[in-house]
Write a structure and sequence with these properties.
Number of helices: 11
CATH superfamily: Aldolase class I
Number of domains: 1
Bound molecules: ligand PBG
Helix content: 25-40%
Number of strands: 10
Strand content: 15-25%
Largest sheet: 8 strands, parallel, barrel
CATH topology: TIM Barrel
Structural class: alpha/beta
Length: about 325
């Protein structure tokens, strides 16, 4: 008789044969910096997550570095928004300021990443610029992304997270970075691209929209993927790899573990997954009601994402979880 229970008999045996292990370096912490904020303010739909001031952002980055996590992913919440999102590539725009602050606080101890998308900076809330019929203009948006990429790289971001789901965005940004003269003519060949390859139009972004004070009226279904489509996630990933993505990502994570496993099998570059705001909020809400064990649920959810194939996991619990892992 085969007895699999033999290897489950003691904590030491279970630890010895564990197939998946989380490490603080696997984790990336998303952070929000809000223009003009004078004190950190909690986002009501994301208990424990705040809008940072410049000072509190620096402190959060230092704390993350001390916890030993792999990186931070920055989002900016500007005061003024306009049709083309000019705050996004303004060197003094809130996100680019945040990148400089984070890079200084990190002192090379973790990787500073920035969200490269227009939705926080446009007054209509879409991830791109609009054409005359109100649709999102793919190729005009690419030009904005290139300009944004150069601004973020100039500010000191090491990895750019392309989350807009425009066709050809990885190739356009790669070429724009390489050919930029902003870096004393040397280009930004060493700035890496983390492509949100399989990004789905998800209800689980709900709390994030509050976090970035989104003005979107409508949805993103003409550019983000249909949650029904698994094969298409692989197709988007292949395109991003061909265009030169350095890291590919699946988002959200927990409802898309099949897509994540497919991508991990296909990719010859590191694979990331984003445990998004709604996934965070669900567990926090259930735990606050005493319906689940908070720490166990957090650990299990992140472990499951790693087991499915993620090398890198973006999670709002990154710093806290790293503390438990040490
Ligand atoms: C786009 C972006 C979004 C998220 C990350 N980048 C929102 C969206 O696509 O609507 C969601 C992250 C989360 O829900 O935690 N800039």
């Amino acid at each position: 008789m085969t007895r699999p229970r033999r290897l489950r008999a003691t904590p030491a045996l279970r630890a010895l044969v564990s197939e998946t292990r989380l490490h603080p370096r696997d984790l990336v912490l998303p952070l929000f910096i809000k223009e003009g904020a004078t004190e950190p303010v909690e986002i009501s739909s994301m208990p424990g997550v705040v809008h940072h001031t410049e000072a509190s952002l620096a402190a959060a980055v230092r704390e993350a570095a001390e916890a030993g996590i792999g990186g931070v992913m920055l989002f900016g919440v500007p005061v003024v928004r306009d049709a083309t999102g000019t705050g996004a590539d303004d060197p003094d725009g809130i996100l680019n300021r945040g990148i400089r602050i984070a890079a200084a606080a990190a002192e090379g101890r973790l990787v500073v990443m920035a969200d490269l998308c227009l939705d926080e900076f446009t007054d209509h809330g879409h991830c791109g610029v609009l054409d005359s019929h109100g649709g999102v203009d793919n190729d005009a948006t690419l030009e904005r992304y290139v300009s944004m990429a150069i601004a973020q790289a100039s500010a000191g971001a090491t990895v750019l997270g392309l989350s807009g789901m425009m066709d050809g965005q990885v190739a356009a940004v790669r070429e724009g970075l390489d050919e930029s003269t902003a870096n004393d003519g040397a280009g930004f060949q060493d700035t890496a691209i983390l492509a949100y390859s399989a990004k789905y139009a998800s209800a689980f972004y709900g709390p994030f929209r509050e976090a970035v004070e989104s003005t979107l009226d409508g949805d993103r279904r003409t550019y983000q993927m249909d949650p029904a489509n698994r094969r298409e996630g692989g197709r988007e990933t292949v395109l991003d790899l061909l265009e030169g993505a350095d890291i590919v990502m699946v988002k959200p994570a927990m409802s898309y573990l099949d897509v994540l496993a497919d991508v991990a099998a296909q990719s010859d570059v590191p694979v990331a997954a984003y445990q998004v705001s709604g996934e965070y909020a669900m567990i926090e809400a259930a735990a606050a009601n005493g319906w689940i064990n908070r720490r166990a649920a957090i650990e299990e959810s992140v472990l499951g994402i790693k087991r499915a194939g993620a090398d890198i996991i973006l999670t709002y619990w990154a710093t806290e979880l790293a503390g438990w892992l040490r």
